[in-house]
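Quick one: structure tokens for this chain, please?
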Amino acid sequence: MATLDGAVKDYGSKRIGPISFTVESGEIMGFLGPNGSGKSTTIRMLLGLIRPTSGSVRLMQKDPISQHEKALADVGYSPELPNLQTFLSPAELLTLTGRLRGLDRRATEDEIPHLLEDVGLTEYEGYKISRLSKGMVQRLSVAQAMVGAPKVLILDEPTIGIDPAGAVHFRSLFREFVRNGGTIVMSSHILSEVEALCTSLAVIHSGSVVYRGELQKFIPTWVGSRTVSIELGEAADDGLIQALSKVKGVTKLTAEKANLLIEVSKDSDPRGEISRLVIDSGAKLLSMGYSRDELQDAYVNSMRGTTE
């Protein structure tokens, strides 16, 4: 769907690249990196908005510079700071977008109510965009990207400014888009959203890709150990604590009444054995999972180039 092969953009005072990665059909790829790392430049090269100094870029197997219209015919884009025509209403903007995409009048009229409902703007369809909040404008930008049922969505901070309930709804919307055959490239600084939605990552730092692969493999790549958090129905007895401490891969165990924090080596996954021991002991297992801070720790470490 999208490929960058040694793509470089040299601004003279700053050089981005070489950037190389491929996004396959059906992926939801999170694109991470600090401000100034080259994310926006990479997205602009991918969209054919700027020409790479060297290397190649392909979108839908086409050159987005020389075959711009064909490359973007099945691509929707929502920028981080959408600059929409404020004198239009959401319905008018989506109608205009549909016509620019080549949809006939009937198809556009049929699609717009569904898009407005999908992004939660049905009751605001006749409002002028100038009257909408930042979060509503962001919702509208996503709807605009989805006009014409594209095969690829490129989303730059799609949930910024959107309330938590809206963000949860958008996750469902994006998952449904992929289930129907779509592909998503999503740039975001909200790591919890990336972790909840994305299947893979590309991480960029100082103009270079430091990781490209599955999200779940990113964490053990950049952390020295992992922490399993367990909540029990009652405080763990000494026998259970001793048994858990002896599980292969466990390096440290901290017990605070009914809550256990178990540090394990990054190349092991003893959760199955841990849960078996808990259940066999007769204790009530309320929850178990890896620490929610792991993606953040891995991300920070990848920027530092260390697992410590």
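The chain has a mean pLDDT of 91.
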